[in-house]
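Aim 2, interim progress. The first record below pairs a target sequence with its structure tokens.
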Amino acid sequence: MIKKEMIAMLLAGGQGSRLGVLTSKLAKPAVAFGGKYKIIDFPLSNCINSGIDTVGVLTQYRPLRLNQHIGIGIPWDLDRNIGGVTVLPPYETSTNSQWYTGTANAIYQNLEYIDYYNPDYVLILSGDHIYKMDYEVMLDYHKTSKADITLATYQVPMEEASRFGVVITDDTGCIQEFEEKPEHPRSNKASMGIYIFNWKVLRDALTELKDQPSCDFGKHIIPHCHERGSKICAYDYKGYWKDVGTLGSYWEANMELVDIIPEFNLYEEFWRIYTKSDVLPPQYIDPQGSVTESIVGEGTEVYGTIEHSVIGSGVTIGKGAIIKNSIIMNGVVIEDGAVIDKAIIAENSVIGKNTELGVGEEAENELAPHIYSFGLVTVGENSVIPANVKVGKNVAIFGETTEDEYPGGLLKSGSSIIKVGE
């Protein structure tokens, strides 16, 4: 019989709707990060760096490119005969066929997978956070505390606490109360969505709540276990952690990589971040080109100027083009003379000659102000912006656009062009 001390279940089925056009055709964990990586690379790398060699990845929304990226787990040394990485999409049984309806329901539908490894502990992870954490240290804390469940927590600014599930603990780190996204939080100790469960405790809770619609860890499983008298402890994590669930936090986390002293270091030898890499030629910087405080991916050609930006692989920056404070993903073409300030441009888009992105004063986005804010221009994948136009701030563009869609050559701040079906 196979026996693993701890296995990980990585929840990667989320749509990431607050990333707007970036996730129209892509699961959030598959979104590019740091010029070279995908968001899911971080929890997967944490697993292998922490000695966890069995990971179930639960996918649902737009899983194709996520599945292609993970493959059989070779980049993370997770191509194992026993264990390794297994992609777990929803499936049909003889009695039922349903989508995952919540984080805990997704785990419930995969009890058979977990039972196969008969673990003592199950680690539940989210596929959409940027951080480095040694889960082995958290497991040691869990054992020492004699906890049934341990939650990783992180001190967030009090004004942001209402975005998270927050916990109130006693002096020993035991959790007394939970508040799921409270309007008036009484604590700024936020749950990171990282849990270690004793397998029996988790199995019982999932079975007891199997009929709960949209069963979720924060809303249902943890409070249910608390009521049943389970000992729940908080593991206070002190390192860098970023929930990149909004365009603002996603942009910020990328920009922090190119600060003079980056808060988050991608280059540590002892805690490497692994990813699936294409074989590409080195980048080329023309004598007329210049790059300062930036990350530039392989196969990228720079004939213009890049400042404080994160540039992916296979990008072309034309002559006289200027890129500042922006994220440019793989395969984008920025034509000659284009000026881009504070934009996120997704894969394989084309920005026409002498076009300017991020001009003028900010205005609230008319379509989705809660998504398209922070003064950003967000361009979805495979989009085309024609030559000689100007684009304001808090703007979303998705699809192949033409000159006549820019009245008087300007798409004003707060506007959107989103072509459904592109």
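The second target in this work package is listed in the same format:
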Amino acid sequence: MSDEDYIASLRDRLGLPGIIDIHTHFMPDPVMRKVWGYFDAAGPLVGREWPIAYRDEEQVRLKTLRGFGVRAFTSMVYPHKPDMAAWLNGWTADFAARTPDCLHTATFYPEPGAGEYVRAALTAGVRVFKVHIQVGDFDPGDPLLDEVWGLIQDAGVPVVIHCGSGPAPGRFTGPDPIRALLRRFPRLPLIIAHLGAPEYREFLDIAADHDRVLLDTTMNFTDFFEAADPFPVTEHARLRDFSDRILFGSDFPNIPYPYGHALFALERLDLGADWLRRVLHDNAARIFGIE
């Protein structure tokens, strides 16, 4: 069975109107090509060979994603230095305006003026933020972000945050900086990317203590991820416990395997059709108000 046929069969079996993928990357072309180059070189934040499966032009990637039955997705961007986030936000705002099935995405970095451009993004109707602690190499508790976190907490706009220590640890990755952040901003609607890999148990504990904290499944349970950062079998029951707080993410196009494998990896967990429906569609539809 082809990848496309498997995905269509899964959607039919679950009775899904489509898939909502909350962790996809669309970026300005020069930035995307630099990201691909970093993966090609197996840079220190990657740590191993990582062939890009969907290295295509933007319109081809959009057609591919829609062909899989993805009805809503994101344009995750992230700065690695100052004076970059506002420019990226301008690009993502334009991309969302010309791509109706993309959730308007934005980002930020600890720098003077961050509060100003985050406030502008909120006014413009941003639906989700993306933050990459590993790539940005910053403490989420940096005082330069105090205004930003306050604005986001009050607005209730989710933040997909890569804060686990996989695939390679950073100076500020891991659960402790997030615990400290949530002590100061307890109502932050964080979405922990990659289920917090490899600190799965610790991030599930954080979610248990904070009912606005969600998790995404980006690359989790795939053969590629399980080889390096396997999810503990002893925690599978907790995946059921969080069935209404786990969202599907893929990392498309920057994945080293076919898109359908990410879906198969979730199906083979054997957590039931209702769990899969929630993760692949219903939870994100509820959180982002997708009819």
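The CA atoms of residues 16 and 73 lie 15 Å apart. This observation will shape the mutagenesis plan for the next reporting period.
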